[in-house]
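Collaborator request, handled under Task 6.
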Amino acid sequence: MTDDPRSADADADAAVQSPLWRRLLPLALVAAGLAAVFVTGLDAYIRLDTLKTYRADLADVAHDRFWLAFPTLVVLYAALVAVSFPGASLMTIFAGFMFGTGLGGLGALIGATLGATAIFLAARTSLGEPLRQRAGPWLDRFQRGFAEGELSYLFVLRLVPAFPFWLVNIAPAFLGVRPRNYLISTALGIAPGTFVYASVGAGAGAVIDRGEDLKLGGLFADPAIWGPMAALVALALLPVAWKRWRGSPAPAPAPVGTADGD
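Structure tokens returned to the collaborator:
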């Protein structure tokens, strides 16, 4: 190939530019969701005593029935990712809340990797034609990167959340990426974000265990919460840092979810 290897990257960068309203849409949805909670009265159920009760029950299940609960988490997570279920990253927070950062993050990582690999393998068969049509506009953008080094390129796509997770799940299947490289790059690339999200859940559990107030101000004043949240912000800024380092415009960051189907 004699073309400038940066040309495909520049095209991809331009393709993922999005207007301001799209960048603010996730925040607007969160705000709308919070408003709906209070308008419908659901906030009455989100109280410290209730959360403490669930916390104790989940802790008992995680401890006493670990060999049932942990595989169930992995299988459920894999299924959500395989069907590109939006918001699957919330499962990572739940995993951390239930099992802690280490085990929860590991369970989410295994589930996300298995689910992504399942849809990758499915896309390589005749069942993948509808998926090819969905990913079609992006395939030319990714082709040069995978041709130059599929292992490292896919690792960067996983680590730097510049593209939707579902797209990175299926595009390699149509570009000749080997399953071994796909599996390795996926597991290593999503690991940092996965454990950060799990630590958010574990931090919330730690606050409950101490019997402290779960008001918003108190949560963000607690190192168990603001530490992981700061890490999430850093992950969200990775696309900007990456594109600036390469000297090209930064794409709009995708949601930082580890296995988000959005």
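The cover message to the collaborator said: "DSSP finds eleven helices and no strands in the chain. Residues 40-246 form one domain. Please let us know whether this matches your experimental observations."
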